[in-house]
Amino acid sequence: MNVLIVDDEALIRRSLKRAFETRGHEVRCGCDGQEGLSIWQKELFDVALVDVLMPGLTGPQMLQKISPSPGTRIILMSAYTGEYDVKGAQALGADLFLAKPFHNIFEIVEQAENLVKNKQQKS
To answer: Dihedral of the CA atoms 26, 32, 36, 37 (nearest 10)?
Structure first.
C-alpha cells in the first residue's frame, strides 16, 4: 500500500510512518498542507492520512485543492474533535475521521488497510 501522511507534528508523522512501514507499506510524509498537496500531485496513493489543523494550508483546505483520485481513501485526523466528526469529514471528501491522541497506532494502520481493502473489493 502506498501511504501519504500529512501532519505538522513530527512525532505523529514518525510514529505513523514507522507503524505503516512495519507492516510493509511505502510511506511519504508532508509536514504541512502545502507540502502534502505537492506530494499528492506527484504520486498516486492508496490512502492519505491528513491532519485537520496545520499552519498555512489546513487539512480541509488541502482536500479542497486536490484532484480527487477515486482509488485513494482519505482519513482526516485531529485532536480538536468538536468541529469535526465522521459526517463533517465525509462532507470534505474523507472516508474516515480519527481523533488524536491515538490509543493504539497499529489500529490506525489496520483501519487504513481495511478502507483500501474494502475499496478494492467494491471495484
So the answer is: 180
Report the alpha-carbon distance of residue 116 to residue 123 in Å, rounded: 11
The closest of 71, 59, 72 to 30, measured between CA atoms, is 59
pTM, entire model = 0.90
Residues 1-35 pLDDT 10s: 999 999 999 999 999 999 999 999 999 999 999 99
Q: For each of the domains in the chain, give its residue range(s) and CATH number, in order of start.
A: 2-122 (3.40.50.2300)
CA distance 123 to 121: 6
Short-list 4, 2, 13, CA closest to 102:
13
